[in-house]
């Protein structure tokens, strides 16, 4: 599952650049009216291009809970995945910057699409396409994943591998105006064995990057033998943000296998954060010192709550992290997953001693104040673990969030069923709000 917390930012601010001056200011922004989702046909039986869907999430709208626009890509089998912005709150002090281009890296084809969402936010159009050869020849990198805008106006994208499909964790830089490939962010020889996500904290001159696996191992689905063969990562990498040099590698061991989403606290003065590790379903806290298949995590803009989704277990959890060292579970919602009570997987031992959840047929939605979810992760893994979803399409849901004392509950009045798309069932993944959200913006 992919989840996005609904802490939406204003698209503009009188006399300033994009986003907000601070995370707490951002929490006062207006409610979102539309969201963008990449929809994937790779690994389905439908030979159609991936597309960017625009979904109406305004309860007052006549087209509420509907796909109102579809922007098909010009190529097949791209595997659109995560998205980012050309400008965000890191450029707040620059009035010349506008958040008007959505960056769509293609995880498999290695293309990068730049989409114009400023001219008509409800009907985006392709602005530019960066071809794979530019990544290959200029950076010796492939399989782009996470995109973040930088305070200097450039765009930085993490990559999973080299052009041959081997693991290689490096970063490409795009010019923020022309969207041409500038080159590598890291120095020659400083790339790490694997790449995936990254987050930077400029006030402490640090960036943290994570590891997934070698692209050639990922493409065919998850094979546990590949973990033993060293095709998946288990480390965090600490970088000097100013010099672009790798300072430290933190080996998380077996308990930290496949560390994916990484999040610093939103407070730009904070020196700690969290990373979700997929293989053992653990969350690690990392911090500065004087010297279940978890697939997505996020932190509320006031740094009070941490949310994560268990893609195989089938639940979303909310933890109170006011005490950073002792997170406290305060909310949980089950959405089905692989261990439903009448399913093929039986739980033999659970340290939390919870019963297996009942099967849930999703014809309702989950209204998160305003926590949105999609059920697709990566088409190769979707096909392996949830073959019915590949045939029937994924769904978009919402969860109501109690942001005062904690708590999650289902809303049964919202569901976007991507099994009913005009060209057939499709796999919708990560969401993005036009004005930014708590996984896209970084404060400097």
TrEMBL record:
Pathway: Organosulfur degradation. It is found in: Nucleus; Cytoplasm, Cytosol; Membrane. InterPro entries: Se-bd. Its main location: nucleus. It holds the Pfam family SBP56. GO terms for molecular function: methanethiol oxidase activity; selenium binding. It is a peripheral membrane protein. Its EC number is 1.8.3.4. GO terms for cellular component: cytosol; membrane; nucleus. It is an enzyme of class 1 (oxidoreductase). It catalyses: methanethiol + O2 + H2O = hydrogen sulfide + formaldehyde + H2O2 + H(+). One of its GO terms (biological process) is protein transport. Keywords: Acetylation, Cytoplasm, Membrane, Nucleus, Oxidoreductase, Protein transport, Selenium, Transport. Catalyzes the oxidation of methanethiol, an organosulfur compound known to be produced in substantial amounts by gut bacteria. Selenium-binding protein which may be involved in the sensing of reactive xenobiotics in the cytoplasm. May be involved in intra-Golgi protein transport. PANTHER family: METHANETHIOL OXIDASE (PTHR23300). Belongs to the selenium-binding protein family. This is Methanethiol oxidase. It comes from Seriola lalandi dorsalis.
């Amino acid at each position: 599952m992919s989840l996005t917390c609904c802490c939406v930012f204003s698209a503009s601010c009188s006399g300033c650049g994009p986003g907000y001056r601070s995370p707490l200011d951002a929490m006062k922004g207006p409610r979102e009216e539309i969201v963008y989702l990449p929809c994937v046909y790779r690994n389905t039986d439908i030979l159609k291009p991936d597309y960017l869907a625009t979904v109406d999430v305004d309860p007052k709208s006549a087209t509420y809970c509907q796909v109102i626009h579809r922007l098909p890509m010009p190529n097949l089998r791209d595997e659109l995945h995560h998205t980012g912005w050309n400008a965000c709150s890191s450029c707040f002090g620059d009035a010349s910057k506008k958040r008007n281009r959505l960056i769509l890296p293609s995880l498999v084809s290695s293309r990068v699409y730049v989409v114009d969402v400023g001219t008509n936010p409800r009907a985006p159009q392709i602005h530019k396409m960066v071809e794979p050869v530019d990544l290959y020849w200029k950076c010796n990198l492939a399989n782009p994943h996470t995109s973040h805008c930088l305070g200097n106006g450039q765009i930085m994208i993490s990559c999973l591998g080299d052009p041959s499909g081997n693991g290689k964790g490096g970063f490409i830089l795009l010019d923020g105006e022309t969207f041409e490939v500038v080159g590598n962010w890291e120095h020659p020889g400083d790339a790490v064995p694997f790449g995936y996500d990254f987050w930077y904290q400029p006030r402490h001159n640090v960036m943290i990057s994570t590891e997934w696996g070698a692209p050639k191992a990922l493409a065919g689905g998850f094979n546990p033998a590949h973990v033993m063969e060293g095709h998946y990562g288990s480390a965090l990498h600490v970088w000097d943000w100013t010099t672009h040099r790798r300072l430290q590698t933190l080996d998380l061991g077996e308990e930290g296998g496949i560390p994916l989403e990484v999040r610093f606290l939103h407070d730009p003065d904070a020196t700690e954060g969290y990373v979700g590790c997929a293989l053992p379903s653990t969350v690690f806290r990392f911090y500065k010192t004087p010297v279940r298949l978890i697939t997505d995590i996020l932190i509320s803009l006031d740094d009070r709550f941490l949310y994560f989704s268990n893609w195989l277990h089938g639940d979303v959890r909310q933890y109170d992290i006011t005490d950073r060292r002792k997170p406290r579970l305060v909310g949980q919602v089950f959405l089905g997953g692989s261990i439903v009570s009448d399913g093929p997987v039986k739980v033999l031992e659970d340290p939390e001693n919870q019963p297996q959840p009942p099967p849930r047929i999703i014809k309702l939605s989950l209204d998160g104040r305003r926590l949105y979810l999609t059920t697709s992760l990566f088409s190769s893994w979707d096909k392996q673990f949830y073959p019915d979803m590949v045939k029937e399409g994924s769904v978009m849901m919402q969860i109501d969030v109690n942001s005062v004392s904690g708590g999650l509950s289902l809303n049964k009045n919202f569901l976007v069923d991507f099994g009913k798309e005009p060209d057939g069932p499709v796999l919708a993944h990560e969401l993005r709000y036009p004005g930014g959200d708590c996984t896209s913006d970084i404060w400097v």
